[in-house]
Amino acid sequence: xxxxxxxxxxxxxxxxxxxxxxxxxxxxxxxxxxxxxxxxxxxxxxxxxxxxxxxxxxxxxxxxxxxxxxxxxxxxxxxxxxxxxxxxxxxxxxxxxxxxxxxxxxxxxxxxxxxxxx
Amino acid sequence: xxxxxxxxxxxxxxxxxxxxxxxxxxxxxxxxxxxxxxxxxxxxxxxxxxxxxxxxxxxxxxxxxxxxxxxxxxxxxxxxxxxxxxxxxxxxxxxxxxxxxxxxxxxxxxxxxxxx
Lengths: 118, 116
Description:
The complex is a heterodimer. Chain A has strands at about 5, 10-15, 20-25, 30-40, 40-50, 55, 65, 75-80, 85-95, 110, 115. Chain A is mainly beta.
């Protein structure tokens, strides 16, 4: 059981280049999230999805786009990378439990993608 | 608005000392969840505990214990007899609502260094 897998683990971009970060989960989770972690800032939410075909903005969405075409995958795109987007990106997923065992509603995180934009 | 404050940026202790990591939160919801995650030097985020707003009972898990006090909006984390392997960044986080899977709001983290 792989859990939450992020691809790639490291990447260096030049300003203006584009790229897509892939998050895949094999736990059949409905919810998926993208966060970024910057030194001294904790983790901040970029975008999230409550199900296949849905996305919503988080705290810091500017400069990013996302897509959730399949339930198991959540893609984060940078159309024109900027140095301010240098960060560690984390993907997470969780169940959607509205009754019963709410203890399952825990966000599980991937190992992170370290992105540098020069 | 929801907010999580971890006032301690860095803490350094000698092995076997007890250490408490503070977490203060703000929310207008009456139903919410609080979490602690550990981020070791390898970088991954490890879930430690989840507590809902209706359960103020303290919890102990081995050397770890958590003190939840709604009256002071705090959810503090204590490590007893610290070990070098406890060295990590610890994050407190808040999720509003009944289900507990709304996006997390994180504190800025506390870096704990345990010295042998």
